[in-house]
Design brief:
- The complex is a heterodimer of chains A (395) and B (146).
- By secondary structure, chain A is α/β, with parallel strands linked by helices.
- Chain A contains 15 helices and twelve strands.
- The longest helix of chain A is centred in the middle third of the chain and has 39 residues.
- In chain B, helix 2 crosses helix 5 and helix 4 crosses helix 5.
- In chain B, strand 1 and strand 2 form a beta hairpin.
- The chains are: A alpha/beta (395), B alpha+beta (146).
- Chains A and B meet through helix 10, helix 13 and helix 15 of A and helix 1, strand 2, strand 3 and helix 2 of B.
Chain lengths: 395, 146
């Protein structure tokens, strides 16, 4: 059996041992419900306050502006649905992009179909970047919200968030960003970028699964999405997931402290792998922006072959990666992100995403590229598309 | 996700390649949906026995495995017997497929039929029970969904 080489850190990450250690006392030792008044629960309350501070400091936000949720999907749902309700007197128009995560896109579709919202889905260029002029042109007096992801989960492109925030502010429109892939990976300052709401998820930065937060700027008038008790300043009911919150806080602090060193190393390995793939594998292309890119994201298309078969063969070597092919999405269409950047279907089917972690070594990177070269050659040797292409070339 | 048989046929596909001057060649599927299968048949004109069968496939693990199994099932058979190799037979021989991959087995059946159709056209013969193949399996499939 090969050693596991985990290159799917955009899907989820390993919970860091120190994060687990920080969480453990809050299961069986300090298990008190933070909403109670006896002294024993004081530990739980303190732990939540501390985690809120750890998390807020990475955004330049106040701890009172952090609201814990069950994850990024809930945060996205909360931001969109309740903004639509709270600001409907002003209008029903929301601007988002074609490359958002489904937590945003499917929520927008719901608001469109069931609640009478009007949604503008901005195009992106071949690198996955939105056009600021198209954004400006899409704004109407009825526009209540702009929601643009900080960085794309598939192709790693980092959007011009500061400029978008500026445009939103100038037009008096709320700005939400899905920062699930960006928080803890790139520096974020909510004031500098004029961000009014921001979604994040703990398990993307070596924290636990099942915990997320929504940053809500003071003054944004959205209400509860989950109704019940008075937790989270009456804005998100349900007994606090204290171990999850503690773990998230520890993970955020850890990600903040190691960000520079960690991402410098990841960028080095990322660019080495991209360079080798593009140079050594013919008919390969990089998807996403080469520079405005998450430090750990590699997304390439290998023409004439299909993603799922590539993943199965990589799996033989213990290499975990992902693809935007239809066969891995359970539908006939390949990833909406790869379609939005203008890839032809057959090229999108041959996409491969590898997302690194701080543990990824240069040695592993070279091993993966070497195996990938063999796998691509093998799959091309049985591809009728490659056969046809080569015959045409030879003519 | 896949049975051991599927994985075996994916990792060690049988009869990959081309047949030079094949008696019949059929290509089905489309790149848009992510699956293309091409079957090559070498048929004895006297006995109508399929002496050899090879394939090339662009597609997922199931697409490769069903192509491989289909070639195994038709090799050595007569044209009439090969027509009885249905997608169900391919699936059963592979110990089943996940529901979303059933279309791959349909594609394999269609690829054999397309290669046989090509053979019949080249030789100006009519094969009993063989219909003109759809060159795009997914079109028919989508219709069935509604």
């Amino acid at each position: 059996m090969n050693k596991l080489i985990y290159l799917d850190n955009a899907a989820t990450t390993k919970t860091a041992p120190e994060v687990v250690e920080a969480m453990l006392p809050y299961f069986s030792e300090y298990y008190g419900n933070a909403s109670t008044i006896y002294d024993f629960a004081g530990k739980s309350k303190e732990a939540i306050i501390h985690a809120r501070e750890q998390i807020a400091s990475l955004l330049g936000a106040n701890k009172e502006e952090i609201y814990f949720t069950a994850g990024g999907t809930e945060s996205d749902n909360w931001a969109l649905k309740t903004t639509f309700e709270a600001y409907k007197a002003k209008g029903n128009h929301i601007i988002t992009t074609k490359i958002e995560h489904h937590a945003i896109l499917h929520t927008c579709e719901y608001l469109e179909k069931e609640r009478g919202a009007r949604i503008t889905y901005l195009n992106v260029d071949k690198n996955g970047l939105i056009d600021l002029d198209e954004l400006k042109a899409a704004i109407t007096p009825e526009t209540i919200l702009i929601s643009v992801m900080f960085a794309n989960n598939e192709i790693g492109t980092i959007e011009p968030i500061r400029e978008i925030g500026q445009i939103a502010k100038e037009n008096g429109i709320l700005f939400h960003t899905d920062a699930v892939q960006a928080y803890g990976q790139v520096p974020i300052n909510v004031d500098e970028c004029h961000i009014d709401m921001l979604s994040s998820s703990g398990h993307k930065l070596n924290g636990p699964k099942g915990i997320g937060f929504l940053y809500i700027r003071k003054g944004v008038k959205i209400r509860s999405f989950i109704h019940g008790g008075a937790q989270e300043r009456k804005r998100r009911a349900g007994t606090e997931n204290v171990p999850g919150i503690v773990g998230y806080g520890a993970a955020a602090e850890r990600a903040g402290a190691s960000m520079k060193e960690r991402t410098d190393k990841e960028i080095l390995i990322r660019d080495h792998m991209i360079k080798r793939i593009l140079e050594e594998i013919p008919f390969s292309r990089l998807n996403g922006d080469p520079v405005k890119r998450l430090p750990n994201n590699i997304n390439v298309s290998l023409e004439f072959i299909e993603g799922e078969s590539m993943l199965l063969m990589l799996d033989n070597y213990g290499i975990c990666a992902s693809s935007g092919s239809a066969c891995t999405s359970g539908s006939l269409d390949p990833s909406h992100v790869l379609m939005a950047i203008g890839l032809p279907h057959e090229v999108a089917h041959g996409s491969l995403r590898m997302t690194l972690s701080e543990e990824t070594t240069m040695e592993e990177a070279d091993f993966v590229v070497d195996r990938l070269k063999d796998i691509v050659a093998n799959l091309r040797s049985m591809s009728p598309l490659y056969e046809d292409f080569m015959k045409k070339q030879n003519q | 996700m896949y049975s051991e048989k599927v994985m075996d046929h994916f990792q060690h596909p049988r009869n990959v390649g081309e047949i030079e001057n094949a008696s019949g060649v059929g290509t089905v599927g489309n790149a848009k949906c992510g699956d293309i299968m091409r079957m090559f048949l070498d048929i004895d004109d006297e006995t109508h026995i399929i002496r050899d069968c090879k394939f090339k496939t662009f597609g997922c693990g199931a697409a490769v495995a069903t192509s491989s199994m289909a070639t195994e099932l038709v090799k050595g058979k007569t044209i009439e017997e090969a027509l009885q190799v249905t997608n169900k037979a391919v699936m059963e021989a592979l110990d089943g497929l996940p529901p979303v991959k059933v279309h791959c087995s349909l594609l394999a059946e269609e690829a054999i039929h397309a290669a046989l159709w090509d053979y019949a056209e080249k030789h100006g013969i009519r094969i009993e029970g063989l219909k003109k193949p759809k060159n795009d399996i997914s079109e028919g499939e989508e219709e069935e969904d509604y």
